[in-house]
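so ive been stuck on this for like two days lol. basically i have the seq below and the ligand is zinc ion, smiles is in there too. i just want the complex predicted, nothing fancy, no docking runs or whatever. if the output looks off dont worry ill sanity check it later, just need somthing to start from for the group meeting slides
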Amino acid sequence: MQIDGTALIRLAVLKTIRREGPISRVELARINRLGGATISQVTGELLQRGMIIEERRSPEGKGRPRILLSIDPSAAVVLGGSLGPRGELEISLVDLGGNLLLRDVHAMGHHRTVASLTTSIAEQLRCFIDAHEVERSVIASVAIALPASIENPGGVVHWLPTMEAGSTPVRGMLSRALELPVTIENDIDCLARAEHWFGRKPSGADFTVLMVGLTIGSAEYVDGIPRSGANGLSSEFGHVKTVWGEEARRCFCGGRGCLTAYASTAGMILSSAPAPDLFSTMPSDIERPFRDLADAAAAGNENARSAIRLAGTYLGRALANLINARDPGLVLVRYTDPDMPALLGQSIMAALDENSLPTVRERTEVDIGFVDDGWRWQGAAALALEQMYLGEGAGRAGGSNDR
Ligand SMILES: [Zn+2]
């Protein structure tokens, strides 16, 4: 996706003010490696739009007062929605500084088509706005994260597992239904945003994140925003081919030998006991057997432990390929189960060391950890704030509302 340079500078400056503020213009220029004139121009525009505020601080002793800049959290709000693994929709309202104001979770029921799901999402968002009496004119931006293959900037969903195949213009449908600016995005790209905006591990502007749960996803951050492919599609790292031949396991996607079928929690189940392939399995059917496997491993069962370690080896090999191909600098591997990092961290690292080129490996940091469900609201909120900061939002502090 092409974003113009001025918008990227504005995004970088606002993120710095949010993270470091109150901050002086001189510090802003230094951190973002920008000239004084550019900083004056950008901050002048942001002051005019009401997104930031100035504060004068008198120095101790003599001297001119310093002028410091902060985000004005009350300037606008953004609305985020994230569709979770059990089909639930988590809706959150966040102020311009990224502080959570409200959060609700709604069961979405069963939907066969993406169009019917979209109608239901619009309905839930409208109910949320009405129930909490949110002033519509202060909602600058709406962002929805979906576990789907999405083409942007059009916001067309091409594939959402468990739903009928076809392409659905979800962004357009939601924009029309809500009469607000809407962005939709693959949920793993939103996990990357959650790490970048809210994460404990400082990620900088360039990193790659892998999420491993029932399925596997990845997202790549470049220059402070997620990178999408030439067609605007997000990465499908979970479906890189890992095993070949007749015996290769089938994946949820219908293909054979995908990384998901070997290294996800679903892959661990298939390694621990004979089971049907994933193509004929609903992701939700894996949860109970996975819990049993994780409990057995925690209790010291060697069969369970080796199935989990094997998943780590597959992931480490695939990760080595990714590192060799892309030189990502920092890779965050995030498991949705808190016990997994300790159980398979070593097998990931061993496979990684064995299969990556030493020159790239020694310059790559790999951080393996657990991610709790908080990333869902954080990721959707960060996407909405990103759109707002880029100047794509509407509302009191925003720009155009003509889409
Ligand atoms: Zn697959």
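The longest helix spans residues 302-326. The chain is about 40% helix and 20% strand.
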